[in-house]
Amino acid sequence: MLMTTSPLITLLLLLSCGIGDAHGLMVRGNSSDMLSLLDFKKSVTSDPNGALSSWNTSTPFCRWNGIMCSRKHPGRVTKLHLGGHGLSGPVSPSLSNLTLIKEINLSSNALSGQLPPLNHLHKLEVLDLGNNSLHDTIPDALTNCSSLRILDLYRNLIFGEIPPQVSMLSVLSVLRLSLNNITGIIPPSISNLTSVQKISLSWNQLTGSIPDGLGKLSNLSVLTLGENGLSGGIPQSLSNLSSLRILGLELTVLGGALPPNFGNTLPRLQWLYLDSSMFHGYIPASLGNASDLERIKPLETRECVDNS
Ligand SMILES: *[C@@H]1O[C@H](CO)[C@@H](O)[C@H](O)[C@H]1NC(C)=O
Ligand SMILES: *[C@@H]1O[C@H](CO)[C@@H](O)[C@H](O)[C@H]1NC(C)=O
Ligand SMILES: *[C@@H]1O[C@H](CO)[C@@H](O)[C@H](O)[C@H]1NC(C)=O
Ligand SMILES: *[C@@H]1O[C@H](CO)[C@@H](O)[C@H](O)[C@H]1NC(C)=O
Ligand SMILES: *[C@@H]1O[C@H](CO)[C@@H](O)[C@H](O)[C@H]1NC(C)=O
Ligand SMILES: *[C@@H]1O[C@H](CO)[C@@H](O)[C@H](O)[C@H]1NC(C)=O
Ligand SMILES: *[C@@H]1O[C@H](CO)[C@@H](O)[C@H](O)[C@H]1NC(C)=O
Ligand SMILES: *[C@@H]1O[C@H](CO)[C@@H](O)[C@H](O)[C@H]1NC(C)=O
Ligand SMILES: *[C@@H]1O[C@H](CO)[C@@H](O)[C@H](O)[C@H]1NC(C)=O
Ligand SMILES: *[C@@H]1O[C@H](CO)[C@@H](O)[C@H](O)[C@H]1NC(C)=O
Ligand SMILES: *[C@@H]1O[C@H](CO)[C@@H](O)[C@H](O)[C@H]1NC(C)=O
């Protein structure tokens, strides 16, 4: 009896060991990241350049195009870089299982649908989903991404308000939300983003006034707020932004004039976009002292502002 079954058992053992070994070689460590990536691939409906053709189980997933894995934690994905490959389809929520990921860059594709859930991505430093067709709100859960340095959702179909909790992203240096359909006010809490260097919110439907506290963000070098429904004038506090290189306030219904000492307090200013009414009426003489200034004009095309 034993003699007759043992070849079968041996065969089964061999088979399962064989598969196990193959998996061990291919996957090493945590294969749940591989399954998450395969889910991502499955939801992509078009891959015109074959960017995902190496994404198959005969290639170790850490060597798939656009994937980088951790050295410390073998088999765990740290980077997903697939910008500009013409990928279309929804972004699989399975990305939220890549819990050690640091960089997601899927910019300039044709991705649609919702953002992936972000609440478990505590290590995420870069989220660049700019220039796609994502249709979603900015989730509150973003605040769990406490390592986030770059948040770029530029040129999508993002709607709803900027969550005030965005201010909890204490190391955020780039906040780029321009060319979307974002409504509501600029939350005053934004002035708590003490590391921020670029804030681009132009081409949305923001209303209310420019928060006075922006003047506290001493490292700010790019601030574009143009083409919104902002009102209430330009706060005097902005003249404290001595690192400012690009200031875009064009085509808003802002009203008011530039603070008279602007040119003296913003020595680094290179580009200044203003509403044409301000341009004709209220340019302070002090701008003559902003010696780097090379452009000062009302906005001409959609593209100008987003060279930032
Ligand atoms: C794989 O990663 C998941 C998600 O981080 C985790 O829950 C699971 O325990 C890990 N498994 C192994 C074997 O490390
Ligand atoms: C799997 O990926 C490799 C490249 O890593 C490629 O050469 C091969 O053709 C792919 N296989 C399939 C079935 O797509
Ligand atoms: C994302 O990738 C594109 C290239 O595909 C690159 O131009 C861009 O700078 C990257 N974004 C970030 C934040 O590094
Ligand atoms: C994440 O992984 C768990 C188990 O590993 C799975 O049950 C779940 O469906 C995955 N979530 C997504 C959004 O893929
Ligand atoms: C946006 O993405 C398209 C491809 O989908 C690309 O042709 C275009 O250059 C991108 N624009 C910017 C400003 O990155
Ligand atoms: C943030 O992460 C913690 C721990 O993973 C989780 O319990 C909490 O629900 C998350 N917060 C949000 C807003 O998703
Ligand atoms: C932007 O939002 C407005 C009002 O919420 C809506 O009517 C419009 O269709 C939206 N536009 C896009 C491109 O989503
Ligand atoms: C900024 O953060 C401090 C401390 O966390 C908090 O007390 C304050 O209310 C915040 N400011 C705004 C405008 O949210
Ligand atoms: C401002 O930027 C400088 C140089 O990039 C950096 O050393 C400094 O820590 C930044 N300050 C804050 C508050 O982030
Ligand atoms: C501008 O900076 C000065 C000195 O750094 C400070 O006293 C003042 O309160 C600041 N003004 C605003 C409006 O932030
Ligand atoms: C330009 O700067 C000089 C030197 O700091 C100062 O004397 C002058 O008043 C400034 N010009 C204007 C128009 O503010």
Automatic annotation (TrEMBL):
<keyword id="KW-0472">Membrane</keyword>
<dbReference type="GO" id="GO:0016020">
    <property type="term" value="C:membrane"/>
</dbReference>
<keyword id="KW-0812">Transmembrane</keyword>
<keyword id="KW-1133">Transmembrane helix</keyword>
<keyword id="KW-0433">Leucine-rich repeat</keyword>
<dbReference type="InterPro" id="IPR013210">
    <property type="entry name" value="LRR_N_plant-typ"/>
</dbReference>
<feature type="domain" description="Disease resistance R13L4/SHOC-2-like LRR">
    <location>
        <begin position="113"/>
        <end position="251"/>
    </location>
</feature>
<keyword id="KW-0732">Signal</keyword>
<keyword id="KW-0677">Repeat</keyword>
<dbReference type="InterPro" id="IPR003591">
    <property type="entry name" value="Leu-rich_rpt_typical-subtyp"/>
</dbReference>
<feature type="signal peptide">
    <location>
        <begin position="1"/>
        <end position="24"/>
    </location>
</feature>
<dbReference type="InterPro" id="IPR053213">
    <property type="entry name" value="RLP29"/>
</dbReference>
<dbReference type="InterPro" id="IPR055414">
    <property type="entry name" value="LRR_R13L4/SHOC2-like"/>
</dbReference>
<dbReference type="InterPro" id="IPR032675">
    <property type="entry name" value="LRR_dom_sf"/>
</dbReference>
<dbReference type="Pfam" id="PF23598">
    <property type="entry name" value="LRR_14"/>
</dbReference>
<protein>
    <recommendedName>
        <fullName>Leucine-rich repeat-containing N-terminal plant-type domain-containing protein</fullName>
    </recommendedName>
</protein>
<dbReference type="Pfam" id="PF08263">
    <property type="entry name" value="LRRNT_2"/>
</dbReference>
<feature type="domain" description="Leucine-rich repeat-containing N-terminal plant-type">
    <location>
        <begin position="31"/>
        <end position="70"/>
    </location>
</feature>
